[in-house]
Amino acid sequence: MTAEAGKSVLPSSTWSRRETLSAQVVRMIAERIKLGEYPRGSKLPTEKALIDELGVSRTVVREAIANLRASGLVSIHHGIGVFVRQDAGVPPFRLSDESLMVVENLVKGLELRIGIESEAAALAAERRTQADIEAMSAACAAMDTAIRHASRSTQADFEFHCAVATASQNEHFYRIFNYIGETLMPRMRLQPDTVSDATFSANLARVNEEHRAVFRAIEIRDAEGARAAMRNHLGNSRDRMLDRLRRHQ
Hints:
mainly alpha
């Protein structure tokens, strides 16, 4: 289809008039990808073809392509053309704050962490360096300090788990933990403001002893022991969270 000279074939509804031309082009191309008119892996029409068909300027088309690329629908192969990504339309993994306020989803989140971090701990036991050992030791020491001061900060806890993920020597474990870890730490989502300092410190001491069990197994290169210790720690975290919620219902 070609446009009459100087005339756009884009929709002229009230809604589309409130959109920029580039946003309308993005919406149109995204819809064509969704419907399979532009199949995954296929090459989009050339810039000139889109200009001629849609009756818009080169600037509009280029801005639209840039937005489609940013949203993960297309990739640009310089000197060749623009292609629909093979994973176009596959929704990215996201954890929304709204869903994580539901207790059931917090439990599911800890189950996810058990699966990921138990394996990371096993790999860490096989691959850790002296620098990794020092980072885990420092995180445990920082949590000891937090216990003495009844600090409600989760930083030392987070840093310990980051150190384990890093010690796996697989950057994907670190990246995914860096994304989900803080989000799915129950103490970050369920701030125990009503718990006394003494009770809070006692709970934190139990958590840190579990950390040290993971640390000891990694330090002596006991992969199965590290896997089991991490699974035990995160399973206990899940149970503590559920117990705290039951007591406050």
